[in-house]
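Private note to self, pasted from the team thread so I don't lose it. Backbone tokens:
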């Protein structure tokens, strides 16, 4: 039962990531200097998917402009809106019913970052001829996720969404495989939860109650739901560490003291007194002078860094950091400015809603 279709999430408001997501779709946030959703598409294409359907917020065209029609991956990508507003991720899938038809498919939450191949996961689904395949991962706080429930024989019997008292430390990750037609049949038999959403955990519990073959596999590599700023920084660090040496190239002009794997993009100018510790990625047409970058730093194209010491951080495009300041474990949004304060007795701040600043 070969899967060639996939639904990817591209909607949602990502309120826990504001103010970053005030002006940018969460799925377009750059990790390892590549939009987050690109990492998801790479994983999907690797397992042989040919048609991808991405849901968007009503009226949002950012994804279409950045992702395009799929030609860069050699696949077809189409977009659809979640009708009637946010009603849960199971409802997202149901809104793609006309695209999926009676075929088996994959559903992937694009804000989940996974290291390692999904090929073994697909192979298990096909070999066992499952009706549904779920991926579990051990987490510190299962109350944020769907949690599997096992009986005394360690048989999966139910999935509960965000339980206050989890029965295990497993979380259901955002990767799901379904056989032909089964999802949409189940969706017609579930109701909205107390949260006012169609819970995907209820779909899986319905399968189990009806005796469907629901397989599962533990992700033993690394998986991260990027729901909070610290998750993004962690994901960025691990994606950098997983990149191959040949993916790092020195394409800019000028010389820096370099240690480890470092990529410097085209048109980037490196002045005197620059030290870069990898893994690190500097985008195209940046300017670096008398600064220290890395490790675990990505800097978007068009940014200018002078005097600063930056580590473990994500710097978006067209930023200007012109101050003798040490920055770590930070996210600095598109076109942001950090400049030297000439009046050392006061601090001048121009900040947006829900901004976090530590001084």
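Design output:
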């Amino acid at each position: 039962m070969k899967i060639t279709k996939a639904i990817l999430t591209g909607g949602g408001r990502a309120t826990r990531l504001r103010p970053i997501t005030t002006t940018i779709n969460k799925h377009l946030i750059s990790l390892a200097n590549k939009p987050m959703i690109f990492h998801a598409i790479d994983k999907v294409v690797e397992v042989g998917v040919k048609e991808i359907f991405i849901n968007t917020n009503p009226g949002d065209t950012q994804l279409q402009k950045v992702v395009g029609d799929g030609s860069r991956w050699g696949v077809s990508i189409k977009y659809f809106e979640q009708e009637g507003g946010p009603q849960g991720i199971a409802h997202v899938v149901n809104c793609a019913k006309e695209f999926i038809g009676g075929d088996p498919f994959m559903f992937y939450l694009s804000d989940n970052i996974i290291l390692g191949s999904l090929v073994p996961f697909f192979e298990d689904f096909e070999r066992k001829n499952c009706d549904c395949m779920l991926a579990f991962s051990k987490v510190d706080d299962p109350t944020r996720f769907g949690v599997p429930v096992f009986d005394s024989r360690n048989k999966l019997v139910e999935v509960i969404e965000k339980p206050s008292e989890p029965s295990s430390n497993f979380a259901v990750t955002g990767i799901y495989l379904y056989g032909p037609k089964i999802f949409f049949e189940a969706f017609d038999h579930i109701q909205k939860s107390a949260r006012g959403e169609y819970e995907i955990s209820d779909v899986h519990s319905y399968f189990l109650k009806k005796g469907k073959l629901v397989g599962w596999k533990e992700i033993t590599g690394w998986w991260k739901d990027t729901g909070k700023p610290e998750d993004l920084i962690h994901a960025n660090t691990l994606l950098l560490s997983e990149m191959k040496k040949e993916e790092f190239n020195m394409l800019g002009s000028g010389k820096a003291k370099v240690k480890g794997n470092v990529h410097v993009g085209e048109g980037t100018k490196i002045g005197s007194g620059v030290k870069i510790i990898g893994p690190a990625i500097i985008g195209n047409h940046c300017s670096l002078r008398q600064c220290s970058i890395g490790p675990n730093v990505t800097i978007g194209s068009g940014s200018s860094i002078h005097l600063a010491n930056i580590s473990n951080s994500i710097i978006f495009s067209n930023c200007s950091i012109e101050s003798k300041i040490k920055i770590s474990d930070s996210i600095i949004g598109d076109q942001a400015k950090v400049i030297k304060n000439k009046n050392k007795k006061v601090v001048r701040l121009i900040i947006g809603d829900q901004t976090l600043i530590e001084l």
